[in-house]
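Section 3.1: Structural characterization of target chains.
Under the original work plan, the team committed to producing a structural model for every single-chain target entering the pipeline before any wet-lab resources were allocated. The record below documents one such target. The sequence was received from the expression subgroup and is listed exactly as submitted; it comprises 185 residues.
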Amino acid sequence: MNVNTQGDYAPVTEEMGVRLPLLALLAKEPAHGYELKQALELTFGAAYPSPNIGQIYVTLGRLEKDGLVRAVAVEQSNRPNKKVYYLTEDGREALTTWADGIVEGPRVRDEFFMKLVLAPMTGIADRSALIGRQTRHFLGIMRDLHHLAETTPPEDRFAHLLIEGAMLHLQADLDWLERCREELT
């Protein structure tokens, strides 16, 4: 499923998508790419869109280039050497800055709202149709989230909280769309 569970329904940036979670996991202990992928999956379950292993290794390479992690080749018998990644002091500082920072609140500059106001002015779209299409899209995401919640094991507390947060944000967006329908159509 391609649901962005951060509540903004926009593509996840590399910074939040993989980069900072990898730094956080490496702050706990050194690891190689597959261990990091498994740790993300075990921590967040199905609620977290798990990156593919290629994305993890590309991100680790960028983190190494930026001086936030360092890699050490570890010899293995009967297998190719593997790289184990360690957090550097710069990486710990970046992680601390992230942890101490605030997360932006509601967005005032909303792409859908811009479309809702401007597209009908040009004659290329009908407000009611735009609201209906967006509502159907959000309802589809809500169904997917309900299914995800039902199929996620109860002991996956982090996953359930993540799913619940996404559903609450989505419900607020659905309520707002209804308000737009009342005011603008």
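Residues 132 and 177 are 9 Å apart (CA to CA).
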